[in-house]
Amino acid sequence: xxxxxxxxxxxxxxxxxxxxxxxxxxxxxxxxxxxxxxxxxxxxxxxxxxxxxxxxxxxxxxxxxxxxxxxxxxxxxxxxxxxxxxxxxxxxxxxxxxxxxxxxxxxxxxxxxxxxxxxxxxxxxxxxxxxxxxxxxxxxxxxxxxxxxxxxxxxxxxxxxxxxxxxxxxxxxxxxxxxxxxxxxxxxxxxxxxxxxxxxxxxxxxxxxxxxxxxxxxxxxxxxxxxxxxx
Length: 231
Known about the structure:
There is one protein chain. By secondary structure, the protein is α/β, with parallel strands linked by helices. The chain has a single domain, classed as Alpha-Beta Barrel (TIM Barrel). Helix content is about 40%, strand content about 15%. It contains 9 helices and 8 strands. It has an 8-stranded parallel beta barrel with strand order 1-2-3-4-5-6-7-8, surrounded by 6 helices. Helix 6 links the parallel strand 5 and strand 6. Helix 6 packs across helix 7 (about 175-185) and helix 7 runs parallel beside helix 8. The longest helix is centred in the middle third of the chain and has 15 residues, at about 110-125. It is globular and about 45 Å long. The two termini are about 25 Å apart. About 50% of the residues are buried.
């Protein structure tokens, strides 16, 4: 993917965007609108909770817009077999990609074998579909972030992702830079959480992100900012 995003042509941002709606109060009507916006603006995907996959499929089934579903969201504390089951179920419902939340507590306790095997179990359940591992970087120090990237690579994940957007902080340029250095060309980086203006989006891409998770995509591709949004 071309990382030379041009601020003067904000519509070129669309191919980087996972158009996101993960709020617990989201309705099917709002998710249908999300899908229509993704179609109109040519976003890469929509990212939703699993119970909304069927709704997305109804709108997007004959299109090129992917459906991304979250697993173990937002805390990452589900038991490993539950995350694997969620993955299988989401794909059977029509999802194309999986964004799973890492077990932060296990990582911080240096239970590395558990963390790696859990990611690996989701990768296996995904059967070749893209798996993005959400690190929740705001809860980790730099060494823990590097270790999480290493474990994600060893487990066969395709992406590492900064944040859920539901914890104490979102994506930072420093974290994207660190994660890109850690995974190199072996995986990609998704920045998510707090990407509400074009300058921030451009900085994330310049730092190495090839995908952006945001609920502000429509405003961004129109060259506007979205102050006050959380995700």
